[in-house]
Amino acid sequence: METIAVVDYNLGNLHSVSKAVEHVAPDARVLVTDDHAQIAQADRVVFPGQGAARDCMKAISDHHVEAAVREAAEVKPFLGICMGLQVLMEYSDENGGTPLLDLFPGQVRHFARGRVDDNGVPLKIPHMGWSQVNQAIDHPMWQGIDDQSRFYFVHSYYIVPDDKSIVAATTDYIDPFACAIASDNLFAVQFHPEKSADAGLQLLKNFVNWKP
Amino acid sequence: MGLAKRIIPCLDVDAGRVVKGVKFVDIRDAGDPVEVARRYNEEGADEITFLDITASSDERETIVHVVEEVAGEVFIPLTVGGGIREVADVRRMLKAGADKVAINTAAVFNPEFVKEAADSFGSQAIVVAIDAKRVSGEGEPSRWEIFTHGGRKPTGIDAIEWSQKMADLGAGEILLTSMDRDGTKIGFDNELTRAVAEAVPIPVIASGGVGDLDHLVDGIKLGGADAVLAASIFHFAEYSIGEAKQHMADAGVEVRL
């Protein structure tokens, strides 16, 4: 039986992530854990995240999950979600500037303020709701998901990776931005697959079956 | 193409059953909330909101079980409101599987609660529900005040200023209900919606008064809402969510089909 670790560092609601993973992987053991050994032994690792960049980095440090996350990101199927994508970058503008895990060179920036939509109403921040995801590459994680399918987003910051070759998808809200990255055994997304109905469940299923 | 406008069916839940009050008084039974939520999800709802209107405290716990059960099989955002008074209530609902909680009356009595909740769980999890009623007379500039206790108690607080204050304190979204329109089926108060949508930097959900599918379109186009919420037109199967979305798409509103 495969074990899938959902990394818990006491930020936000992991219930929906773990429930959705259980839903698509009924035969797997899904562990919500901050235990280094359990994360190290798991076959796959899901790395969700919520909250502000500084709180997120502090929680990663307080729960001593940094080493386990770094190791998992190197060696086994790894799925970052939302803040779990952003903290993989080098540096975030959030909280007056926050150094991140620096697995990939690049920044995390706030959406530009002050733009209006076709109805003359200000474009709202956070970007909250269903936006189209434009697949930039062929990837096993996109299997069975139509290009430009909509996924559910909630965020005020977005990643700007230096290396554009890692961009697996883009979305357009206020400005176009990278909403998914792929590199070897790692895939990470800004949107919430666990809240994105059928398209999201398909992505999680693809992750469970992914053999990088 | 950008962000889709959301359609949010709302389930008023009383002691574990879906009900819908007309102007919050006459209440009709509309089924088991878990079954109703499942149906809305299958029809393509973008989100589901539960408003717990249970009066008796020994039946309060039922909404937690409803949320737990729905969250285990419906994978779209879930919001729960009604009776959220302290941080422990927010935590309990999020733990049960809600993604957001809607704070209403408690925000009026203690605005700092909104800040406390947003600091603890993030703005994305905190919706402030505002029940507004027009208080300006004929020929006067439009003005709305907020009301509590299901629209019965006036507060003297200006609805626009209140919305801005809630956004400043960390609300991630405003659920704006027109008490004049709620249950009337004559459409949203689009002037109210637009006034709030233009005044705050966060998303606004229009609520109260939907009677047909054109009203949903008007809420977006005239009201400038980011999402539209309706209850009775969906509960009694007058329209499916799918029909509503197709109608909006045909009218040029960007939706998730």
Rounded mean pLDDT score of chain B: 90
SSE order of chain B, as H and E?
Answer: EEEHEHEHEHHEEEHEHEHEHH
* Alpha plus pi helix count of chain B: 10
Poorly predicted ranges of chain B: 21-26
Strand order of the largest sheet of chain A: 2-1-3-4-14-13-12-9
Which series of helices and strands of chain A comes N to C? Answer: EHEHEHHEHEEEEEEEEEEH
Radius of gyration of chain A: 16 Å
- Give the overall form of chain A: globular
Function (chain B): IGPS catalyzes the conversion of PRFAR and glutamine to IGP, AICAR and glutamate. The HisF subunit catalyzes the cyclization activity that produces IGP and AICAR from PRFAR using the ammonia provided by the HisH subunit.
Subunit structure (chain B): Heterodimer of HisH and HisF.
Enzyme class (chain B): lyase
Pathway (chain B): Amino-acid biosynthesis; L-histidine biosynthesis; L-histidine from 5-phospho-alpha-D-ribose 1-diphosphate: step 5/9
Note the topology.
The complex is a heterodimer of chains A (212) and B (257).
Chain A: E1 3-7, H1 15-24, E2 29-33, H2 36-41, E3 44-47, H3 53-62, H4 66-75, E4 78-81, H5 83-86, E5 91-92, E6 98-99, E7 106-110, E8 127-132, E9 134-135, E10 150-155, E11 157-161, E12 167-173, E13 175-183, E14 186-189, H6 197-209
Parallel strand pairs in A: 1-2, 1-3, 3-4, 4-14, 5-7
Antiparallel strand pairs in A: 5-6, 7-11, 8-10, 9-12, 12-13, 13-14
Chain B: E1 6-14, E2 17-22, E3 26-31, H1 33-43, E4 48-52, H2 62-71, E5 78-81, H3 87-96, E6 100-103, H4 105-109, H5 112-121, E7 126-134, E8 144-148, E9 153-158, H6 159-169, E10 173-178, H7 190-199, E11 204-207, H8 213-221, E12 227-230, H9 232-235, H10 241-250
Parallel strand pairs in B: 1-4, 1-12, 4-5, 5-6, 6-7, 7-10, 10-11, 11-12
Antiparallel strand pairs in B: 1-2, 2-3, 7-8, 8-9
